[in-house]
Amino acid sequence: MPKKVTILDVAQFSNVTKSTVSRVINDSPLVNERTKQRVWQAIKELGYTPNRTARSLALGKNHVIGMVVSEQQISDVVLNPFFPTVLKGITTVANQQGYNILLLSLSGQDAQSYTEILQRHTVDGFLILGGPSDVNLGRDLDRMKVPYVFIGKHDPEAQHSFVSTDNEEGGYIAGKHLIDLGHRNIRLMVGEVKGSILVHNVERIAGFRRALGEAGIPFEDRLVVKMPTDMENSYYFLKTYLERDRPSGLILSNEVTSMSCLNLLLDEGIAVPDEISLVSFGDPQFFRNTRPSLTTVSQSVEWLGRTAMEMLLKRVTGGEWLPPKIIRKPEIVLRGSTKKCGV
């Protein structure tokens, strides 16, 4: 059996001490760049594999990130296309940096629960999807120095670290697109979670209202319709709703309700876009193969996951400073589900 290469072998080969090799492996700023290069060259030539467990203990890290999903959204991790896409962005960065992802459900828990998980060395930080019940959570985590990044904004005052699409602008461009096509009878369909509307949809409503105001169309509460977020219930909700109210244009808040709507309109023989125009929020790649392909306000979903993970790792490792929030402007992708009203 060939002798296993040790840290002492690397130290002797590169003519430094064992502690210097350890500092190089742990990326210590106390070692100059020339020595680092010499040690890494020795590691490469000797085929030395650093003990990851020992390295993690030395750094106080275990290279695991907790991805927190609210209890009401656990089933969506599998059923809603948003979550696999955002997870792809997260895991792409995690794999490149040697981190694993642990799925957690901490809905309704206070900041102390997050701190206790860190103290048990379960994870190094948190990516939090969906809005927790306590809008002060971001501020509490900051106070307790817990590394975290929200994917999407949940605090109306934005006092937390997050990555998001500009949802107010998204609501505006969705409404303006239909208005520019001559539609005046438009509904914004938003998901309802336990009787409440999440912040991203509140912002979309504000943008939709702005578009109506610019066009001189009075805003009324009935123009915003709260509906279930799961496939089956949203299908039957829309069926009942469209029997009593038939707008010329619908704006749909996510992928699941959009697919429910397409299925229902197909079943009912209602032509899209000849009889009703549809605009959806979501990942445009997901909707490109629907029939008809859906005009989409792009959320850049994979970008959300990738950017949130990069931001969190900067905080976990004490790397370069990043702003507490990164917001990306959405774009509308025009496809076959909208047309001029009455044409």
UniProtKB/TrEMBL annotation:
CDD domains: HTH_LacI, PBP1_LacI_sugar_binding-like. It comes from the Bacteria. Residues 5-59 form the HTH lacI-type domain. The keyword DNA-binding applies. Signal peptide: none annotated. The keyword DNA-binding applies. This is LacI family DNA-binding transcriptional regulator.
